[in-house]
Write a structure and sequence with these properties.
454 residues; alpha+beta; 2 domains; 17 strands
Length: 454
């Protein structure tokens, strides 16, 4: 297993950011007590010139929830939920895990509108990175947020929405905990449905065409994602488009534990550092295209899978994510570029998933300034300075490629992009940091991301 953090030295999902912190504060489970506890803590930090970082499941990979010598607040105890089923609105504490939210909504025949693929993250963390998922015809999670309550640096609690404290409403999604503590969120939810899965194999250069033909203007498609092959002999030449169509003619299956977990994990992990394993896995994925045709899932089932089914458990290694957001007209050029670029580096690429994201009209630090396709890359990396240097070099090359094509990159991961690349990809960042100091003049809320790029 990856090393466990030492007491007083919390880490994040990268297992490369062990950080000496002053203290770890677990939030009270009762909302009234938690709010008073957090208000007192913020005022204490202000008086003592202390720094606060905010964490939940801590699945970021670049110290976005950590700051040396700071106070780390663990929000996971703040997980209360209430459903207004007549208006399809969920009120939820920011520390709630999606693995708690999905079964709760399932009892009422409802489902999350927008979240990541897996259920291992907190609501507050998902909003802080402005996540996106497989949900068809959707922007990032900010588009599903009606309002939230925020505990600010002066200890006051404000409500933020599109009509109230609008500037803060835009700064918090993708704000990485720099403006205050998200207390609870009102989210739009939708009906749970039965979906039939259909998959299609094609040359990777035909992926966009297939997506347009099979997904666009089809309201029956509820979920969709793509995958590109990573086996060396045929690298990035094939793709699989997976669609999930609503089928109201069949019963919605009961929510249960993910199926074939042990087998799927074995197949996936056997491809780490193994070209044979990668080739075998891609063959099996293509075989499933025919075997799984028309298989029925519930919407909630698709989103009720933890990351640990696939994540690394080998000592000395970690799974590292990248994501690049590419405008529609540059998709094929990006695939061509990664086909030429990635094999030049000594890295172990395990997976590439493609996800469509519509224009973000809510967040200040927008990664989707128009419709984009997100290319999610999973690497298995040795926890070693040399391997990390090689990953840094590759990241900087891929960031340059994305920017040259009018795209950008996702910020929750390793802080390998240079400051110059960061500001090229996010030209609004300078004003973003000025606004951070407007709302938090004493810089109470900090993390390693802020330290690296402010």
């Amino acid at each position: 297993m990856p090393p466990k953090a030492r007491p007083g030295y919390p880490d994040d999902a990268s297992h490369m950011n062990e950080t000496k912190m002053d203290s770890l504060v677990l939030v009270e489970p009762m909302p009234d007590k938690a709010e008073k506890q957090l208000q007192n803590l913020v005022l204490f930090a202000a008086r003592g010139h202390r720094v606060i970082s905010i964490g939940g499941a801590r699945h970021s990979m670049g110290g976005q929830t950590l700051y040396s010598g700071g106070i780390l607040i663990d929000m996971r105890g703040y997980n209360q939920m209430h459903l207004d089923s007549s208006n399809n609105v969920l009120s939820v504490g920011s520390g709630a895990l999606w693995s708690e939210v999905v079964p709760y909504l399932n009892k009422y025949g409802k489902s999350v509108l927008i979240m990541q693929t897996n259920n291992s993250f907190t609501v507050g963390g998902s909003l802080s990175v402005n996540c996106h998922g497989w949900q068809a015809g959707s922007g990032p999670i900010a588009s599903s947020v009606l309002s939230f309550r925020l505990l600010m640096a002066d200890g006051k609690i404000c409500t933020c929405s599109r009509s109230e404290n609008q500037q803060l409403f835009s700064l918090i999604p993708g704000g990485y905990g720099l403006f205050g503590i998200i207390l609870d969120v009102k989210l739009k939810v939708t009906d749970n449905k039965a979906y039939r899965m259909y998959q299609y194999v094609m040359p990777s250069g035909d992926y966009l065409k297939a997506f347009r033909e099979r997904v666009d203007n089809n309201p029956q498609i509820g979920m969709v994602y793509g995958r590109i092959n990573v086996n060396q002999d045929n690298f990035a030449n094939e793709a699989i488009l997976s669609t999930f169509r609503i089928d109201d003619s069949v019963a919605i299956p009961a929510l249960k534990a993910p199926g074939l977990s042990a087998f799927r994990r074995t197949v996936f992990r056997s491809s780490a550092s193994s070209e044979y394993g990668k080739e075998l896995r891609w063959r099996l994925e293509k075989l499933v295209v025919n075997l799984g045709k028309g298989k029925i899932f519930s919407r909630n089932q698709i989103m009720n899978e933890p990351v640990d089914i696939f994540q690394n458990s080998e000592a000395g290694y970690s799974d590292i994510l990248h994501e690049y957001f590419i405008p529609v007209d540059s998709i094929n050029r990006f695939i061509d570029e990664i086909r030429k670029t990635i094999p030049k580096y000594k890295v172990d690429l395990m997976n590439i998933t493609i996800r469509n994201v519509l224009e973000d009209r809510d967040a200040y630090m927008r990664y989707a300034r128009k419709e984009v396709f997100g290319f999610v890359m999973l690497f298995n990396e040795a926890i070693d300075p040399g391997a990390d240097r090689e990953m840094r070099n590759l990241t900087q090359k891929l960031v340059d490629i994305a920017i040259s094509l009018g795209g950008t990159y996702y910020l929750p991961y390793r802080l390998h992009a240079t400051r110059e690349q960061f500001y090229r990809a996010y030209p609004m960042a300078q004003d973003f940091f000025k606004l951070k100091r407007k709302y938090d003049p004493d810089e109470i809320f900090q993390n390693q991301f802020y330290k690296a790029y402010k």
